[in-house]
Amino acid sequence: MNRVDASRLATPTAPSTAYAQIVADGIAARAGELALSLPAERGAPAHLHDSLLAAARALGPQLVDLSHFLHANPELGYAEHQAAAAVADLAATAATAPVEVGVGGLPTALRARLDFKPGLALGTPGAAAGTPGVAPGAPAPQPHPEPLAAPHVPTIAIACEYDALPEIGHACGHNVMAATAVGAFLALAALRRQHGEGAVPGNVVLIGTPAEEGGTGKEVLIRAGVFDSLDAAVMTHAYGYDLADQLWLGCRRLTITYTGVSAHASSQPHMARNALDAAALAYQGIGMLRQHMAPGDRLHAVIVEGGRRASIIPERAQLKLYVRSAAASTLKDLCSRVDDVAAGAALMTGCGVEVEWDPYLPVMPVRTNAAMTQSWVRAQEMTGRHPLPRGVVPETLAASTDFGNVSHLVPAIHPLIKVAGEEVALHTRAMAQAAGSQSGDAACVDGAYGLAAVVLDLLHDSALLAQARAEFEAAGGVLTTSQLFA
Length: 486
Hints:
Distance between the termini: 60 Å
Radius of gyration: 26 Å
Low-confidence stretches: 122-136
Strand content: 5-15%
Shape: elongated
Largest sheet: 6 strands, mixed
Helix content: 25-40%
Strand order of the largest sheet: 1-2-4-3-5-11
Number of strands: 12
Mean pLDDT: 92
Structural class: alpha/beta
């Protein structure tokens, strides 16, 4: 009888690179496409954008130092004590109030504010005390018999991440992303110092959010009210391409535990209920379900417990799973189907089953705001970057981020900024290396200006902010995980 060469079976076969090459070729063929850019007449005045870009570039050394410090001292989610302190210290140089560390009940979460004082907006930098808008010696205006309601002052949040991954450090580029967020905050403060209070006519809040990598820190802060009373939110993400927008999947995690009856596997197997059989059936059922999922949906599962000895029928087995989908509604539907698979495997084997959803809180898909994205694209073009529109990079290359939860609370954007070569994937050692390289350093400055520019455009152009809000409402308005998975 012919035998297979044992030496050939000792190592796994190398995955084919054919599909990766097809993807790369397709992207290269569309590399000249441009995302929509905000028209010149929209947003903040051009001279303010020029000053803002200069301010971001002047901050470059500080931003790179912050990025390199975080890169050299990676910390896991909810333990980012050095990172939070470094971000807070730098933000404190510009904040209009003491930086709050430990907001939302999370020791490594923070909030820094750049508050707008409307009374100074009519004056010049360093306006003297007195009645705003009244020339010295002129009679003071008479009080209105019925005080007018104060106009709404918009508040825009800049989200900041700084957690790392186990063993491979900042392989998602959060060190760069933290520097872009802090840099945007500092650049807007510098613009206000240079041109006066009216240069940034609204409130800006920097929110440091722990544990994006698996911990859903932003959802914890949302439930604690840290993201309340906002008009919009911005954030960028490190990547191998400059992308105006890309698909980010919603994600829920669960643990399925089967309980059976143990018995001797040889002498009394008929007296057992095999928990490993249930886990194996569930694993196969999930595989079969993949054929019938919506395009882009993802299911990943591992069996983490299934017995210790082959002579003992396992009385306990356990799987851990991730469920991902591109929309909130399809994520909810897919989760219900996974529930059915788990229950069916229990019925087929006579085992008990316990399904524990969300050991970490759910992650929503990112709902990108097109009006705000055009502002980001225009700003990046000023730095020499040319973000690609959505669809150029296939949506099969999709991950998840808890910024999606923020994007279902207020109008928001989460564009991607190039820090690495196109062949470099997130969550790899190559990405970690790139995040600490010169390309990562350049992204710190360009991203800081980009985020600050979007904030500035929204605060100066009430029609743009209203357009962003109308788009958000048309997409479904506020949707929380508590509402969706009640």
